[in-house]
Amino acid sequence: MSSQKGGGSRSRTQKHQNTTAFKNDKYGASPQVKKANAKVHEGLCQRCKDVLEWKVKYNKYKFLTQPRKCVKCLQKTVKDAYHIMCKPCALRLELCAKCGKNEEIVLPLNRKEEEEEVEEEADQQRQSNRRKKRDPHRTDEDDDDFDDEEEDDFDELDSDCNECDTEATGK
Q: CB of 59 within 8 A of CB of 24?
């Protein structure tokens, strides 16, 4: 055992020491390892940030495959692994997104980026709702085809009008 029961400290040094440090991309980085190495852990307290960096460093970090449920808003909006809160809730309540404690946030979430994302999602929903209200059976492809046909029809109308104009002036 490394120490006695009751919290006693070790009396001798470590028996085996590694000569080289572990590298998570030693034999070529997989796409997941590259993605994990590039990930910025924002909106977390120092302890949670250190924990996630350790997981990345030693190949223990696993990404989420599906969004998780936020403990504050109860929506499936948590897209980062090991987090319990979505970014908007953590930003609004000024809590750590992983542990939920009111600690000092090391890398604060970017409010502008978050607001832009929310606005973009809302705009996309509004546009899809408008399309559904116009004609629920129409698809986006039909819209594109319709626009192309309109331009062609106007060109034909312009040429017809020119012929009418010359006939009207000739008569």
A: yes
DSSP SS3 for 101: coil
- This prediction has a pTM of 0.57
Residue 145 in tokens: 């085809």
Decide: helix, strand or coil at residue 105: strand
pLDDT 10s digit of each residue in the chain, 171 long? 555 666 677 788 888 988 998 888 888 889 999 999 898 999 999 999 999 999 999 999 999 999 999 999 999 999 999 999 999 999 999 999 999 999 998 888 775 555 566 667 777 777 777 766 665 565 555 555 445 444 555 555 555 555 555 555 554
Contact 49, 107 (CB under 8 A): yes
Determine the 3-state secondary structure of 45 from DSSP: strand
Provide CB contacts within 8 A for 41, sequence distance 6+. 48, 49, 52, 53, 107
Nearest CA to 82 among 100, 102, 104? 100
Three-point CA angle 151, 155, 157, nearest 5°: 115
Q: Which residues contact 44 (CB under 8 A, 6 or more apart)?
A: 52, 96, 97, 98, 105, 106, 107
Phi-psi region of 21 (alpha: psi -120 to 50; beta: other; left: phi over 0): beta
**Could you identify the residue written with the tokens 């046909």?**
149
